[in-house]
Amino acid sequence: MFWRYEITGVDTITLHFGEQIDVALVDSIHKAAAVLRETLGERLLDAVPSYTTLLLRYDLRQDDLASLVADVRPALDTLSPEGGESEVEPDVVEVPVFYDVRVGPDLERIARRADLSIDDVVKRHTANTYHVFAIGFAPGFAYLGQVVDELATPRLSTPRQKVPVGTLGIADTQTAIYPITSPGGWNLIGRTPLTLFDPERDRPGLLEAGQQVRFRAIDEAEYIELGGRLDDLPWERETTTASTTGERS
Amino acid sequence: MTARQQGLIVRKPGFLSLLQDAGRERVMHLGLATGGAMDRHAWAWGNQLLGNRYGAPALEITFGGSEFTCTLDTQIAVTGAAVTCTVNGETQPLWATISVSRGDEIALSAPKSGLRAYLAVRGGFLVEPGLGGSCATFTREKTGGLHHDGKPLQTDDILPCPETSDYVPNRKVPAQWIPEYTAAATLDVVLGAQVDRFPSRALDDFFSHAYELSAQSDRMGARLNGPALAVKGERLISEGISLGSIQVPADGQPIILLNDRQTIGGYPKLGAVTPRSLDTLAQCVPGSSLQFRPISLHEAQKQERTFLRFFYL
Protein backbone atom coordinates (compact mmCIF):
# COMPACT_ATOMS: atom_id res chain seq x y z
CA MET A 1 0.00 0.00 0.00
CA PHE A 2 1.37 3.40 -1.01
CA TRP A 3 1.36 6.09 1.64
CA ARG A 4 3.34 9.07 2.88
CA TYR A 5 2.95 11.22 5.94
CA GLU A 6 2.88 14.93 6.64
CA ILE A 7 3.38 16.70 9.96
CA THR A 8 0.14 18.56 10.60
CA GLY A 9 0.38 19.46 14.28
CA VAL A 10 2.32 19.06 17.49
CA ASP A 11 0.70 15.68 18.16
CA THR A 12 -0.68 14.77 14.74
CA ILE A 13 0.46 13.41 11.41
CA THR A 14 -1.66 12.99 8.30
CA LEU A 15 -1.17 9.88 6.20
CA HIS A 16 -1.82 10.40 2.49
CA PHE A 17 -2.89 7.37 0.44
CA GLY A 18 -3.57 9.08 -2.86
CA GLU A 19 -3.88 12.47 -4.49
CA GLN A 20 -7.39 12.21 -5.93
CA ILE A 21 -10.82 11.20 -4.70
CA ASP A 22 -11.25 7.54 -5.61
CA VAL A 23 -13.69 4.95 -4.26
CA ALA A 24 -10.88 2.38 -4.07
CA LEU A 25 -9.12 4.52 -1.46
CA VAL A 26 -12.09 4.38 0.92
CA ASP A 27 -11.50 0.71 1.61
CA SER A 28 -7.72 1.07 1.95
CA ILE A 29 -8.03 3.95 4.39
CA HIS A 30 -10.65 2.11 6.41
CA LYS A 31 -8.35 -0.92 6.70
CA ALA A 32 -5.39 1.27 7.60
CA ALA A 33 -7.41 2.93 10.37
CA ALA A 34 -8.47 -0.47 11.72
CA VAL A 35 -4.97 -1.96 11.77
CA LEU A 36 -3.47 1.16 13.37
CA ARG A 37 -6.16 1.29 16.07
CA GLU A 38 -5.39 -2.34 16.83
CA THR A 39 -1.60 -2.03 16.73
CA LEU A 40 -1.20 1.28 18.52
CA GLY A 41 -4.07 0.90 21.01
CA GLU A 42 -3.92 3.52 23.76
CA ARG A 43 -1.12 5.37 22.02
CA LEU A 44 -3.58 6.60 19.40
CA LEU A 45 -5.95 9.33 20.63
CA ASP A 46 -7.79 9.75 17.33
CA ALA A 47 -7.76 8.34 13.80
CA VAL A 48 -9.79 10.42 11.37
CA PRO A 49 -10.31 9.02 7.86
CA SER A 50 -11.20 11.37 5.03
CA TYR A 51 -11.21 11.12 1.23
CA THR A 52 -7.51 10.49 0.65
CA THR A 53 -6.07 10.81 4.14
CA LEU A 54 -6.01 9.46 7.66
CA LEU A 55 -5.21 11.90 10.46
CA LEU A 56 -3.50 10.32 13.48
CA ARG A 57 -3.43 12.06 16.85
CA TYR A 58 -0.95 10.43 19.20
CA ASP A 59 -0.23 10.65 22.91
CA LEU A 60 2.91 12.70 23.54
CA ARG A 61 3.38 11.10 26.94
CA GLN A 62 4.10 7.83 25.15
CA ASP A 63 5.45 8.77 21.73
CA ASP A 64 7.42 11.18 19.67
CA LEU A 65 7.23 11.38 15.90
CA ALA A 66 10.01 8.86 15.31
CA SER A 67 8.67 6.20 17.67
CA LEU A 68 5.18 6.55 16.21
CA VAL A 69 6.25 6.29 12.58
CA ALA A 70 8.49 3.35 13.48
CA ASP A 71 5.36 1.40 14.43
CA VAL A 72 2.99 2.80 11.79
CA ARG A 73 5.23 1.58 8.99
CA PRO A 74 5.26 -2.18 9.76
CA ALA A 75 1.54 -2.11 10.64
CA LEU A 76 0.63 -0.70 7.23
CA ASP A 77 3.07 -3.08 5.53
CA THR A 78 0.88 -5.98 6.70
CA LEU A 79 -1.99 -4.74 4.53
CA SER A 80 -2.40 -6.29 1.11
CA PRO A 81 -1.15 -4.18 -1.78
CA GLU A 82 -3.65 -2.10 -3.71
CA GLY A 83 -6.12 -4.11 -5.73
CA GLY A 84 -5.90 -7.02 -3.29
CA GLU A 85 -9.05 -9.05 -2.71
CA SER A 86 -11.15 -7.86 0.17
CA GLU A 87 -12.10 -10.83 2.33
CA VAL A 88 -14.76 -9.17 4.41
CA GLU A 89 -18.19 -8.45 2.97
CA PRO A 90 -18.73 -4.70 2.91
CA ASP A 91 -21.12 -3.52 5.60
CA VAL A 92 -24.17 -2.18 3.70
CA VAL A 93 -26.64 -0.07 5.67
CA GLU A 94 -30.15 0.35 4.25
CA VAL A 95 -31.69 3.75 4.84
CA PRO A 96 -35.43 4.25 4.19
CA VAL A 97 -36.22 7.62 2.60
CA PHE A 98 -39.49 9.44 1.97
CA TYR A 99 -38.76 11.23 -1.32
CA ASP A 100 -41.37 13.96 -1.58
CA VAL A 101 -41.49 17.66 -2.39
CA ARG A 102 -42.83 18.40 1.10
CA VAL A 103 -39.64 17.11 2.73
CA GLY A 104 -37.41 17.60 -0.31
CA PRO A 105 -38.04 21.13 -1.58
CA ASP A 106 -35.34 20.85 -4.29
CA LEU A 107 -36.64 17.60 -5.81
CA GLU A 108 -38.56 19.32 -8.60
CA ARG A 109 -35.67 21.56 -9.57
CA ILE A 110 -33.25 18.63 -9.74
CA ALA A 111 -35.74 16.70 -11.91
CA ARG A 112 -36.21 19.67 -14.25
CA ARG A 113 -32.48 20.24 -14.46
CA ALA A 114 -31.88 16.60 -15.42
CA ASP A 115 -34.95 16.51 -17.67
CA LEU A 116 -36.36 13.61 -15.65
CA SER A 117 -39.57 12.90 -13.78
CA ILE A 118 -39.42 12.96 -9.99
CA ASP A 119 -39.95 9.18 -10.03
CA ASP A 120 -36.91 8.77 -12.29
CA VAL A 121 -34.81 10.91 -9.95
CA VAL A 122 -35.84 8.63 -7.09
CA LYS A 123 -35.11 5.51 -9.15
CA ARG A 124 -31.64 6.74 -10.01
CA HIS A 125 -30.89 7.84 -6.47
CA THR A 126 -31.99 4.50 -4.98
CA ALA A 127 -30.27 2.39 -7.67
CA ASN A 128 -26.73 3.20 -6.49
CA THR A 129 -24.71 1.84 -3.61
CA TYR A 130 -22.87 4.68 -1.91
CA HIS A 131 -19.57 4.67 -0.05
CA VAL A 132 -19.05 6.61 3.16
CA PHE A 133 -16.05 8.71 2.10
CA ALA A 134 -15.76 10.73 5.28
CA ILE A 135 -17.57 11.83 8.41
CA GLY A 136 -17.34 15.48 9.33
CA PHE A 137 -18.92 18.94 9.24
CA ALA A 138 -21.26 17.88 12.08
CA PRO A 139 -21.59 14.83 14.34
CA GLY A 140 -22.39 11.80 12.20
CA PHE A 141 -22.58 13.76 8.92
CA ALA A 142 -21.54 11.17 6.29
CA TYR A 143 -20.27 12.28 2.88
CA LEU A 144 -21.60 9.61 0.49
CA GLY A 145 -20.50 9.14 -3.09
CA GLN A 146 -21.10 9.11 -5.89
CA VAL A 147 -24.47 10.04 -7.35
CA VAL A 148 -24.96 9.44 -11.08
CA ASP A 149 -23.90 12.39 -13.23
CA GLU A 150 -27.51 13.31 -14.12
CA LEU A 151 -28.28 14.01 -10.47
CA ALA A 152 -25.10 15.91 -9.68
CA THR A 153 -26.18 19.43 -8.68
CA PRO A 154 -24.09 22.32 -7.32
CA ARG A 155 -24.64 23.56 -3.77
CA LEU A 156 -27.18 26.35 -3.22
CA SER A 157 -25.58 29.75 -3.60
CA THR A 158 -27.23 30.83 -0.33
CA PRO A 159 -27.43 28.08 2.30
CA ARG A 160 -30.71 27.60 4.15
CA GLN A 161 -30.67 28.74 7.76
CA LYS A 162 -32.34 25.58 8.97
CA VAL A 163 -32.40 22.08 7.53
CA PRO A 164 -34.39 19.62 9.68
CA VAL A 165 -32.73 16.51 11.08
CA GLY A 166 -32.93 13.49 8.74
CA THR A 167 -33.13 15.51 5.52
CA LEU A 168 -31.34 13.96 2.52
CA GLY A 169 -29.50 16.20 0.09
CA ILE A 170 -27.23 16.30 -2.94
CA ALA A 171 -24.20 18.55 -3.43
CA ASP A 172 -22.20 18.05 -6.61
CA THR A 173 -21.63 14.29 -6.91
CA GLN A 174 -22.17 13.63 -3.21
CA THR A 175 -25.25 12.88 -1.18
CA ALA A 176 -25.75 13.08 2.60
CA ILE A 177 -28.28 13.14 5.41
CA TYR A 178 -28.30 15.93 8.00
CA PRO A 179 -27.88 14.08 11.34
CA ILE A 180 -28.81 17.16 13.38
CA THR A 181 -30.87 20.21 12.47
CA SER A 182 -28.40 22.74 11.13
CA PRO A 183 -27.84 25.36 8.45
CA GLY A 184 -27.04 23.81 5.09
CA GLY A 185 -26.53 24.45 1.39
CA TRP A 186 -27.28 21.02 -0.07
CA ASN A 187 -30.17 20.38 -2.50
CA LEU A 188 -32.85 18.64 -0.44
CA ILE A 189 -34.67 15.65 -1.93
CA GLY A 190 -36.21 13.66 0.92
CA ARG A 191 -36.04 12.64 4.52
CA THR A 192 -35.37 9.52 6.57
CA PRO A 193 -37.12 8.64 9.81
CA LEU A 194 -33.94 6.93 11.07
CA THR A 195 -31.88 8.60 13.80
CA LEU A 196 -28.44 9.06 12.27
CA PHE A 197 -26.82 10.43 15.36
CA ASP A 198 -27.75 9.71 18.97
CA PRO A 199 -25.17 10.58 21.64
CA GLU A 200 -26.80 8.07 24.02
CA ARG A 201 -26.18 5.11 21.71
CA ASP A 202 -23.12 2.87 22.05
CA ARG A 203 -22.28 3.78 18.49
CA PRO A 204 -23.66 7.32 18.31
CA GLY A 205 -23.29 7.63 14.54
CA LEU A 206 -25.29 5.22 12.38
CA LEU A 207 -22.74 5.54 9.57
CA GLU A 208 -18.95 5.33 9.69
CA ALA A 209 -16.26 5.70 7.06
CA GLY A 210 -15.70 2.45 5.19
CA GLN A 211 -19.38 1.44 5.24
CA GLN A 212 -21.74 1.42 2.28
CA VAL A 213 -25.28 2.76 2.06
CA ARG A 214 -28.34 1.97 -0.03
CA PHE A 215 -31.47 4.11 0.03
CA ARG A 216 -34.95 2.53 -0.11
CA ALA A 217 -37.90 4.69 -1.16
CA ILE A 218 -40.83 4.54 1.26
CA ASP A 219 -44.30 6.07 1.05
CA GLU A 220 -45.84 8.56 3.43
CA ALA A 221 -47.61 5.86 5.49
CA GLU A 222 -44.39 3.94 6.14
CA TYR A 223 -42.48 7.15 6.79
CA ILE A 224 -44.97 8.15 9.48
CA GLU A 225 -45.10 4.63 10.88
CA LEU A 226 -41.30 4.64 11.27
CA GLY A 227 -41.51 7.89 13.22
CA GLY A 228 -41.11 10.42 10.40
CA ARG A 229 -42.43 13.96 10.85
CA LEU A 230 -44.07 16.47 8.54
CA ASP A 231 -44.63 19.25 11.07
CA ASP A 232 -41.18 20.84 11.11
CA LEU A 233 -40.53 22.06 7.59
CA PRO A 234 -39.01 25.52 7.87
CA TRP A 235 -39.11 26.26 4.11
CA GLU A 236 -42.92 26.07 4.13
CA ARG A 237 -42.98 28.71 6.83
CA GLU A 238 -40.34 30.73 4.96
CA THR A 239 -42.51 30.96 1.86
CA THR A 240 -45.79 31.67 3.68
CA THR A 241 -44.27 34.30 5.96
CA ALA A 242 -41.74 35.67 3.50
CA SER A 243 -43.32 39.12 3.65
CA THR A 244 -43.46 39.30 7.43
CA THR A 245 -40.51 40.57 9.35
CA GLY A 246 -38.73 39.80 12.55
CA GLU A 247 -39.29 36.07 12.59
CA ARG A 248 -35.87 34.99 11.40
CA SER A 249 -33.28 34.15 13.97
CA MET B 1 -29.10 12.53 40.78
CA THR B 2 -31.04 12.66 44.05
CA ALA B 3 -32.86 15.73 45.32
CA ARG B 4 -30.43 15.84 48.23
CA GLN B 5 -27.40 16.24 45.98
CA GLN B 6 -25.26 19.05 47.32
CA GLY B 7 -23.38 21.46 45.14
CA LEU B 8 -23.22 24.96 43.72
CA ILE B 9 -26.53 26.52 42.74
CA VAL B 10 -26.18 28.84 39.76
CA ARG B 11 -27.67 32.24 40.60
CA LYS B 12 -26.20 34.09 37.61
CA PRO B 13 -24.56 32.04 34.86
CA GLY B 14 -22.68 34.96 33.30
CA PHE B 15 -22.10 35.56 29.59
CA LEU B 16 -20.85 32.03 28.80
CA SER B 17 -20.08 29.50 31.51
CA LEU B 18 -19.33 25.95 30.45
CA LEU B 19 -18.51 22.73 32.18
CA GLN B 20 -15.18 21.61 30.70
CA ASP B 21 -12.64 18.85 31.25
CA ALA B 22 -9.67 17.57 29.24
CA GLY B 23 -11.89 17.01 26.20
CA ARG B 24 -12.85 13.97 24.18
CA GLU B 25 -10.69 11.20 22.85
CA ARG B 26 -11.26 8.74 20.01
CA VAL B 27 -14.45 10.33 18.64
CA MET B 28 -13.19 12.71 15.93
CA HIS B 29 -13.86 10.03 13.31
CA LEU B 30 -17.56 10.32 14.22
CA GLY B 31 -17.51 13.99 13.30
CA LEU B 32 -17.31 15.02 16.96
CA ALA B 33 -15.08 17.89 18.04
CA THR B 34 -12.59 17.30 20.86
CA GLY B 35 -13.53 20.27 23.07
CA GLY B 36 -12.13 20.72 26.55
CA ALA B 37 -10.80 23.63 28.61
CA MET B 38 -9.36 26.36 26.37
CA ASP B 39 -6.66 27.49 28.81
CA ARG B 40 -5.39 24.19 30.16
CA HIS B 41 -2.73 25.93 32.22
CA ALA B 42 -5.22 27.79 34.43
CA TRP B 43 -7.75 24.93 34.41
CA ALA B 44 -5.16 22.29 35.38
CA TRP B 45 -3.76 24.46 38.21
CA GLY B 46 -7.29 24.88 39.60
CA ASN B 47 -7.67 21.12 39.83
CA GLN B 48 -4.10 20.63 41.03
CA LEU B 49 -4.60 22.99 43.99
CA LEU B 50 -7.56 20.91 45.13
CA GLY B 51 -5.81 17.56 44.69
CA ASN B 52 -8.09 16.60 41.79
CA ARG B 53 -7.04 14.21 39.08
CA TYR B 54 -6.02 15.70 35.72
CA GLY B 55 -9.18 15.91 33.64
CA ALA B 56 -11.62 16.65 36.47
CA PRO B 57 -14.55 18.80 35.29
CA ALA B 58 -14.39 22.48 36.23
CA LEU B 59 -16.19 25.63 35.07
CA GLU B 60 -14.86 27.79 32.27
CA ILE B 61 -16.32 31.25 32.82
CA THR B 62 -15.86 33.64 29.89
CA PHE B 63 -16.10 37.38 30.69
CA GLY B 64 -16.92 36.60 34.36
CA GLY B 65 -20.15 37.80 35.92
CA SER B 66 -21.19 34.51 37.57
CA GLU B 67 -22.77 33.96 40.98
CA PHE B 68 -23.32 30.77 42.93
CA THR B 69 -24.75 29.66 46.25
CA CYS B 70 -22.88 26.84 47.94
CA THR B 71 -24.94 24.14 49.69
CA LEU B 72 -22.07 22.29 51.37
CA ASP B 73 -18.75 22.79 53.13
CA THR B 74 -15.94 22.35 50.61
CA GLN B 75 -13.03 24.11 48.92
CA ILE B 76 -12.83 25.84 45.59
CA ALA B 77 -10.13 27.51 43.50
CA VAL B 78 -10.45 30.28 40.94
CA THR B 79 -7.68 30.60 38.35
CA GLY B 80 -7.20 32.19 34.95
CA ALA B 81 -8.58 35.63 34.06
CA ALA B 82 -8.06 38.33 36.71
CA VAL B 83 -11.62 38.48 38.05
CA THR B 84 -12.46 39.61 41.55
CA CYS B 85 -13.77 36.60 43.43
CA THR B 86 -15.83 37.27 46.54
CA VAL B 87 -17.38 34.94 49.10
CA ASN B 88 -20.20 36.70 50.98
CA GLY B 89 -18.78 39.95 49.66
CA GLU B 90 -15.21 39.37 50.90
CA THR B 91 -12.47 39.33 48.30
CA GLN B 92 -10.62 36.02 48.00
CA PRO B 93 -7.20 35.18 46.58
CA LEU B 94 -7.02 33.80 43.03
CA TRP B 95 -4.81 30.82 42.17
CA ALA B 96 -5.29 29.53 45.73
CA THR B 97 -7.58 27.23 47.69
CA ILE B 98 -10.64 28.97 49.14
CA SER B 99 -12.73 27.34 51.88
CA VAL B 100 -16.48 27.75 51.48
CA SER B 101 -19.37 26.73 53.72
CA ARG B 102 -23.00 25.85 53.28
CA GLY B 103 -24.98 28.99 52.42
CA ASP B 104 -21.99 30.98 51.15
CA GLU B 105 -22.48 33.25 48.14
CA ILE B 106 -19.67 33.10 45.58
CA ALA B 107 -19.38 35.85 42.96
CA LEU B 108 -16.95 36.44 40.09
CA SER B 109 -16.67 39.92 38.55
CA ALA B 110 -15.84 40.77 34.96
CA PRO B 111 -12.08 40.27 34.39
CA LYS B 112 -9.60 43.14 34.61
CA SER B 113 -7.27 41.16 32.35
CA GLY B 114 -7.60 37.82 30.62
CA LEU B 115 -10.81 36.34 29.27
CA ARG B 116 -11.58 32.99 30.88
CA ALA B 117 -11.67 32.23 34.59
CA TYR B 118 -11.79 28.65 35.87
CA LEU B 119 -13.67 27.59 38.97
CA ALA B 120 -12.73 24.17 40.28
CA VAL B 121 -14.18 22.37 43.29
CA ARG B 122 -12.58 19.82 45.59
CA GLY B 123 -13.10 16.38 44.05
CA GLY B 124 -14.31 17.91 40.77
CA PHE B 125 -17.93 18.44 39.73
CA LEU B 126 -19.82 15.14 39.68
CA VAL B 127 -21.00 14.91 36.10
CA GLU B 128 -21.16 11.64 34.20
CA PRO B 129 -18.82 11.65 31.22
CA GLY B 130 -20.56 11.21 27.88
CA LEU B 131 -19.13 10.95 24.37
CA GLY B 132 -15.38 10.38 24.21
CA GLY B 133 -15.17 9.91 27.99
CA SER B 134 -15.75 13.64 28.51
CA CYS B 135 -18.41 16.01 29.83
CA ALA B 136 -17.13 18.90 27.67
CA THR B 137 -20.00 21.21 26.69
CA PHE B 138 -20.71 21.73 22.97
CA THR B 139 -23.38 24.30 22.30
CA ARG B 140 -23.25 23.79 18.52
CA GLU B 141 -23.54 20.01 18.74
CA LYS B 142 -26.05 20.06 21.59
CA THR B 143 -23.95 17.46 23.40
CA GLY B 144 -22.08 17.34 26.71
CA GLY B 145 -22.39 19.59 29.72
CA LEU B 146 -24.40 19.25 32.91
CA HIS B 147 -27.54 17.90 31.22
CA HIS B 148 -25.83 16.30 28.19
CA ASP B 149 -27.63 18.75 25.90
CA GLY B 150 -24.79 21.18 25.21
CA LYS B 151 -26.39 24.04 27.12
CA PRO B 152 -24.14 26.53 28.92
CA LEU B 153 -24.88 26.99 32.64
CA GLN B 154 -28.42 28.24 33.30
CA THR B 155 -29.87 30.03 36.32
CA ASP B 156 -30.97 27.47 38.95
CA ASP B 157 -28.72 24.70 37.60
CA ILE B 158 -27.21 22.70 40.45
CA LEU B 159 -23.59 21.71 39.92
CA PRO B 160 -23.17 18.55 41.99
CA CYS B 161 -20.11 18.45 44.25
CA PRO B 162 -18.71 15.52 46.24
CA GLU B 163 -19.36 15.81 49.97
CA THR B 164 -16.86 13.26 51.13
CA SER B 165 -13.46 14.01 49.61
CA ASP B 166 -10.83 15.02 52.15
CA TYR B 167 -9.87 18.61 52.84
CA VAL B 168 -6.65 19.63 51.16
CA PRO B 169 -4.15 21.90 52.92
CA ASN B 170 -4.44 25.55 51.96
CA ARG B 171 -2.23 26.14 48.98
CA LYS B 172 -1.46 28.74 46.40
CA VAL B 173 0.22 28.60 43.02
CA PRO B 174 3.83 29.90 43.08
CA ALA B 175 3.97 33.37 41.52
CA GLN B 176 6.22 32.22 38.68
CA TRP B 177 3.38 30.07 37.30
CA ILE B 178 0.77 32.81 37.32
CA PRO B 179 0.75 34.47 33.89
CA GLU B 180 0.31 38.17 33.28
CA TYR B 181 -2.47 38.50 30.76
CA THR B 182 -1.49 41.39 28.57
CA ALA B 183 -2.99 42.65 25.34
CA ALA B 184 -0.08 41.40 23.23
CA ALA B 185 1.11 37.82 22.91
CA THR B 186 3.64 35.89 20.85
CA LEU B 187 2.49 32.43 19.81
CA ASP B 188 4.67 29.50 18.73
CA VAL B 189 3.90 27.81 15.41
CA VAL B 190 5.06 24.45 14.11
CA LEU B 191 5.19 24.71 10.34
CA GLY B 192 3.24 21.97 8.59
CA ALA B 193 3.92 20.21 5.33
CA GLN B 194 1.36 22.36 3.52
CA VAL B 195 3.58 25.38 4.08
CA ASP B 196 4.73 24.67 0.50
CA ARG B 197 1.33 25.95 -0.62
CA PHE B 198 2.31 29.43 0.45
CA PRO B 199 4.78 31.70 -1.37
CA SER B 200 7.72 32.73 0.83
CA ARG B 201 6.34 36.27 0.89
CA ALA B 202 3.27 34.96 2.73
CA LEU B 203 5.49 33.42 5.40
CA ASP B 204 7.41 36.69 5.76
CA ASP B 205 4.13 38.55 6.16
CA PHE B 206 2.81 36.10 8.70
CA PHE B 207 5.88 36.04 10.93
CA SER B 208 6.89 39.68 10.68
CA HIS B 209 3.58 41.47 11.25
CA ALA B 210 1.21 41.71 14.17
CA TYR B 211 -2.32 40.38 13.71
CA GLU B 212 -5.37 41.50 15.60
CA LEU B 213 -7.66 38.95 17.25
CA SER B 214 -11.10 39.49 15.74
CA ALA B 215 -14.28 39.79 17.79
CA GLN B 216 -15.65 37.07 15.47
CA SER B 217 -13.58 34.51 17.39
CA ASP B 218 -15.08 31.77 19.52
CA ARG B 219 -14.22 28.30 20.86
CA MET B 220 -14.26 26.99 17.29
CA GLY B 221 -11.75 29.35 15.78
CA ALA B 222 -9.67 32.46 16.41
CA ARG B 223 -10.06 34.79 13.44
CA LEU B 224 -7.21 37.18 12.72
CA ASN B 225 -7.16 40.54 10.99
CA GLY B 226 -3.91 41.64 9.39
CA PRO B 227 -1.88 41.39 6.20
CA ALA B 228 -3.68 39.04 3.78
CA LEU B 229 -1.62 35.92 3.07
CA ALA B 230 -1.20 34.82 -0.52
CA VAL B 231 -2.11 31.17 -1.14
CA LYS B 232 -1.06 29.13 -4.14
CA GLY B 233 -3.81 26.98 -5.64
CA GLU B 234 -7.28 26.50 -4.35
CA ARG B 235 -9.03 24.31 -1.82
CA LEU B 236 -7.59 20.91 -1.00
CA ILE B 237 -9.44 17.65 -0.65
CA SER B 238 -10.96 17.77 2.83
CA GLU B 239 -8.90 16.10 5.56
CA GLY B 240 -8.86 15.77 9.34
CA ILE B 241 -7.98 19.05 11.11
CA SER B 242 -5.45 19.21 13.97
CA LEU B 243 -5.82 21.40 17.01
CA GLY B 244 -4.27 24.81 16.44
CA SER B 245 -4.18 24.51 12.64
CA ILE B 246 -3.75 27.87 10.93
CA GLN B 247 -6.00 27.67 7.90
CA VAL B 248 -6.00 30.35 5.27
CA PRO B 249 -9.20 30.83 3.27
CA ALA B 250 -9.36 32.73 -0.03
CA ASP B 251 -9.50 36.16 1.65
CA GLY B 252 -6.04 35.51 3.12
CA GLN B 253 -7.06 36.22 6.74
CA PRO B 254 -5.83 33.30 8.86
CA ILE B 255 -8.08 31.36 11.22
CA ILE B 256 -6.60 29.32 14.10
CA LEU B 257 -8.77 26.28 14.67
CA LEU B 258 -9.48 25.63 18.33
CA ASN B 259 -11.01 23.00 20.62
CA ASP B 260 -14.54 23.08 19.15
CA ARG B 261 -13.37 23.08 15.51
CA GLN B 262 -15.04 21.01 12.80
CA THR B 263 -13.27 17.66 12.36
CA ILE B 264 -12.45 17.87 8.64
CA GLY B 265 -11.92 20.71 6.21
CA GLY B 266 -10.22 21.65 2.99
CA TYR B 267 -8.44 24.97 3.34
CA PRO B 268 -4.63 25.05 3.06
CA LYS B 269 -2.93 25.11 6.45
CA LEU B 270 0.29 26.93 7.16
CA GLY B 271 1.08 25.07 10.35
CA ALA B 272 -0.27 24.71 13.86
CA VAL B 273 -0.08 26.91 16.94
CA THR B 274 1.36 24.80 19.78
CA PRO B 275 -1.00 23.64 22.55
CA ARG B 276 0.98 25.68 25.10
CA SER B 277 0.55 28.82 23.00
CA LEU B 278 -3.18 28.04 22.63
CA ASP B 279 -3.36 28.24 26.43
CA THR B 280 -1.99 31.77 26.10
CA LEU B 281 -4.32 32.61 23.22
CA ALA B 282 -7.33 31.48 25.29
CA GLN B 283 -6.80 34.49 27.57
CA CYS B 284 -6.47 37.08 24.78
CA VAL B 285 -9.44 39.41 24.47
CA PRO B 286 -10.74 40.47 21.05
CA GLY B 287 -8.58 43.27 19.68
CA SER B 288 -5.40 41.82 21.23
CA SER B 289 -2.25 42.04 19.16
CA LEU B 290 -0.76 38.67 18.22
CA GLN B 291 2.64 37.84 16.80
CA PHE B 292 3.86 34.47 15.63
CA ARG B 293 7.25 32.77 15.68
CA PRO B 294 8.27 29.42 14.22
CA ILE B 295 9.35 26.68 16.62
CA SER B 296 10.71 23.22 15.86
CA LEU B 297 8.47 20.19 16.29
CA HIS B 298 11.01 18.76 18.72
CA GLU B 299 10.94 21.82 20.94
CA ALA B 300 7.11 22.06 20.81
CA GLN B 301 6.74 18.40 21.76
CA LYS B 302 9.21 18.84 24.62
CA GLN B 303 7.20 21.77 26.02
CA GLU B 304 3.93 19.89 25.75
CA ARG B 305 5.36 16.74 27.32
CA THR B 306 6.71 18.78 30.23
CA PHE B 307 3.26 20.28 30.77
CA LEU B 308 1.44 16.94 30.62
CA ARG B 309 3.92 15.14 32.85
CA PHE B 310 3.77 17.89 35.47
CA PHE B 311 0.00 17.68 35.86
CA TYR B 312 -0.42 13.94 35.36
CA LEU B 313 2.27 13.32 38.03
TrEMBL record, chain A:
Record GO terms (molecular function): ATP binding; hydrolase activity
Transmembrane segments: none
Keywords: ATP-binding, Hydrolase, Nucleotide-binding
SUPFAM superfamilies according to UniProt: Cyclophilin-like, PH0987 N-terminal domain-like
Domain annotation Carboxyltransferase: ranges: 3-207
NCBIfam families: 5-oxoprolinase subunit PxpB (TIGR00370)
Name under which the protein is recorded: 5-oxoprolinase subunit PxpB
Organism: Marinobacter nanhaiticus D15-8W
Automatic annotation (TrEMBL), chain B:
SMART domains: AHS2
Domain of life: Bacteria
GO MF term set: ATP binding; hydrolase activity; transferase activity
InterPro entries hit by this protein: CT_A_B (IPR003778), Cyclophilin-like_dom_sf (IPR029000), PxpC (IPR052708)
Residue ranges constituting the Carboxyltransferase domain according to the UniProt record: 29-311
Signal sequence bounds: none
Protein biosynthesis keyword on record: no
Keywords: ATP-binding, Hydrolase, Nucleotide-binding, Transferase
Coiled coil region boundaries: none
Protein name: Biotin-dependent carboxyltransferase
